[in-house]
Amino acid sequence: MLQLLDFNENPNVGIYCRTNSSIAFLQPGLPKKTKRLVADILDVKVVELCIADSTIIGSLLVCNSTGAIVTAFTNKDTFQTLEKLGLHVLPIEDIINAAGNDILVNDYGALVHPELKATTMKQISKTLDVPVHKGTIASLGTVGMAAVVTNKGCLCHPKTTDEEKQQLKKVFDVDVMIGTVNHGFPMIGSGLIANTKGAIIGNMTTGIEMGRIEEALGFLP
Predict the structure, then answer these.
(1) Could you tell me where the DSSP H helices lie in the chain?
(2) Measured between alpha carbons, how far apart are the two ends of the chain, in Å?
(3) What confidence tier does 221 reach under pLDDT thresholds 50, 70, 90?
(4) CB atoms within 10 A of CB 36
(5) Prediction pTM value
(6) What does the H/E/C string look like for 68-111?
């Protein structure tokens, strides 16, 4: 299922939400109708969350079915909320610490900002229970915003090189396509939230862009 949506008239839905196969972490204060749509389309439990007193959940948190990586500035209550949901949680102690911007992950692998420390990569691997690789997408280190990946497919920045696409296929074990969101914006992660069951898409996204999303993430019959 695919749904065009905005959060308080903002089409950059991926900045304010992060999901795995069973939970969507969502900025507080959205209308009940919006929260219900997110829950229904993604077929998940919705949990409202602030990270480091901020609503930009998608930029500061990344998760798969096993664990969650958050910025080191995350407070104790948020940390405990994540743990109570059954996730292994790692506060990322690194200069590069906006986890949602800098880490791309599914249940098969993770791609991280090329400047992350080797010790941090080992911690990420243990927390998410996947192999971790350094890399770029469209020569950008902010891989978490330059693409969206699920266990069924990956949609990435239109300037992603062939070599980068090959790495994405290898790391995530899915097919890879290029596209845009919100009427031509190349940072896919800013305007798309997805798991294997559905996708929430920024409401400025065109029909052609939606078709690419549907194909790339395996929603076509």
Answers:
(1) 32-42, 57-60, 76-84, 99-102, 118-128, 143-146, 162-172, 207-216
(2) 11
(3) confident
(4) 11
(5) 0.96
(6) EEEECCCCHHHHHHHHHCCCEEEEECCCCCCHHHHEEECCCCEE
Asked: is 2-216 a CATH 3.75.10.10 domain? The reply is yes
CA–CA separation, 155 and 177 (whole Å) = 5
Rounded Cα gap, residues 59 and 221, in angstroms = 32
- Secondary structure of residue 63 in the 3-state scheme: strand
Q: Which helix (H) or strand (E) holds 3?
A: strand 2-5
Q: What mean pLDDT, rounded, does the chain reach?
A: 96
- Bridge pairing between strands 110-112 and 147-149: unpaired
pLDDT in tens, 146-168: 999 999 999 999 999 999 999 99
pLDDT band at 94 (very low <50, low <70, confident <90, very high): confident
Tell me the C-alpha distance between 97 and 73, whole Å.
9
Share of the chain above pLDDT 70, in %: 100
Write down the domain spans for the chain.
Answer: 2-216
